Amino acid sequence: MPKPEWLTNPWKQNPWFESVAVAQQRARKRLPEPVYAALVAGSERGQSMSDNEAAFRELGFAPHVAGQQAKRDQATTVLGQQISLPVIMSPTGVQAVHPEGEVAVARAAAARGTVIGLSNFASRSVEEVVAANPQTFFQMYWTGDRDVMVQRMERAHAAGAQALIATLDWSFSMGRDWGSPEIPEKVDLKTAVRMAPKVLRKPRWLASFARDLPDLTAPNLAAPGEGKGPTFFGAYYEWMTTPPPTWDDVRWMREQWAQLSGRPFMLKGVCRVDDALQAVDCGVDAISVSNHGGNNLDGTPAPIRVLPSVVDAVGDQVEVLLDGGIRRGSDVVKALALGARAVMIGRAYLWGLGANGQAGVENVLDILRGGIDSALLGLGLSSVHELTPEHLVIAPGFARELGVPRRS
Ligand SMILES: Cc1cc2nc3c(=O)[nH]c(=O)nc-3n(C[C@H](O)[C@H](O)[C@H](O)COP(=O)(O)O)c2cc1C
Predict the structure, then answer these.
(1) What letter would DSSP give residue 285?
(2) 48 Cβ inside 6 Å of ligand 1
(3) Mutate which of 268, 295, 353 to test ligand 1's pocket (most atoms within 8 Å of Cβ)?
(4) Closest ligand 1 atom, CA of 120?
(5) CB 119 near ligand 1, within 6 Å
(6) Structure pTM?
(7) Mutate which of 51, 92, 344 to test ligand 1's pocket (most atoms within 8 Å of Cβ)?
(8) What is the C-alpha separation between 376 and 371, in angstroms, rounded?
């Protein structure tokens, strides 16, 4: 029997949306409540999560009235990858919210000419994702022993990953003041019946999984020869019980990846100047100034506030990216004006994915591209490479400087 048009045509399922905020509203309406809450994430009282967005509101623009540029260019590179706009997909681990998950995000990123960062907690394999988008960066946490980590790097390299992202900012905080969603160990009949009252209220979401129920395993953490990989909880347990990394471990990880692949390495989660300098010393090629989207140690300032001090300290020794709180093209422009080479987005594309699958992620990227273009037009610039702090209005007391070595 042919599928009804509302299942096959994404724009019938969910028409074009005009902002990331609207995508979020649509995702909230469409997804079962625990699934939506898993994307909201955050930690403790949500101070960092809300500062990530609020900080962008403290930055304004100084536009021109005439003399603007008719052509404006957004193309750039990140870790050697040519991208058509200064935005890449930050790795996120909860994409079983959609049957195609990371593969839909990878296709959308490829269709719009940019990179996908793939989490080691992803629900789809690195091989499938690279097939959908050869511009894939593989992300790893510090989990398992060194042999296991090397195996995972080898697999990502063999699959064709173009760079490795090491995410090390995680402090295993447990609670949230707004309550955490239930994430089942696996979706079997018993779980389906128990969670039915919440899930059956969203029949369209359920229908999209008609053939395969969400599979909550981490295939990229499978041991060689093992099929599916551990469940999310199995993977989390391994991570929790791995002793935290030292700077020597960071150096080791970068060297292993460089030796086996010859490809670049990014350290994600830097928010202090001293750490940024240590990362440079370890030989990384890029850092992402980030507080894990406000999911790590609550109270960490928004990355956009600490970006100028980090950029100042590292200069052009490494590529500096930023992630956290990007919801519109003008946020991207503000981050670039304060020295980021490009940004990584998390929730913005997850809302697009939740709202409308691949088409929704493409919609989000189009919104960001449109917003970047408007800002460049207003500022009288012809390229994202011309942005400087002089293009911004910066509220007094905006910046934070963390871990700046004292001068004696
Ligand atoms: C639901 C969710 C899952 C995430 N999973 C990962 C992950 O597996 N690996 C990782 O490096 N970062 C992860 N992050 C952090 C993102 O990569 C990124 O740092 C953050 O989302 C940026 O903030 P934004 O959501 O405001 O754009 C996750 C974030 C969210 C919201």
Answers:
(1) S
(2) no
(3) 295
(4) 8
(5) yes
(6) 0.95
(7) 92
(8) 9
The rounded Å distance from CA 323 to ligand 1 centre is: 9
Q: Taking a C-beta distance cutoff of 8 angstroms, is the pair 108, 362 a contact?
A: yes
Residues written for the chain: 408
357 lines ligand 1 (CB under 6 A): no
The answer to whether the beta carbons of residues 370 and 329 sit under 8 Å apart is: yes
Q: Is 98 a catalytic residue?
A: no
d(CA 178, CA 210): 31
Q: Is the beta carbon of 42 within 6 A of some atom in ligand 1?
A: no
pLDDT tens series, the chain, 408 aa: 777 777 778 887 788 999 999 999 999 999 999 999 999 999 999 999 999 999 999 999 999 999 999 999 999 999 999 999 999 999 999 777 898 999 999 999 999 999 999 999 999 999 999 999 999 999 999 999 999 999 999 999 999 999 999 999 999 988 999 999 877 766 666 666 676 667 767 777 777 776 666 677 899 999 988 878 998 889 999 999 999 999 999 999 999 999 999 999 999 999 999 999 999 999 999 999 999 999 999 999 999 999 999 999 999 999 999 999 999 999 999 999 999 999 999 999 999 999 999 999 999 999 999 999 999 999 999 999 999 999 999 999 999 999 998 776
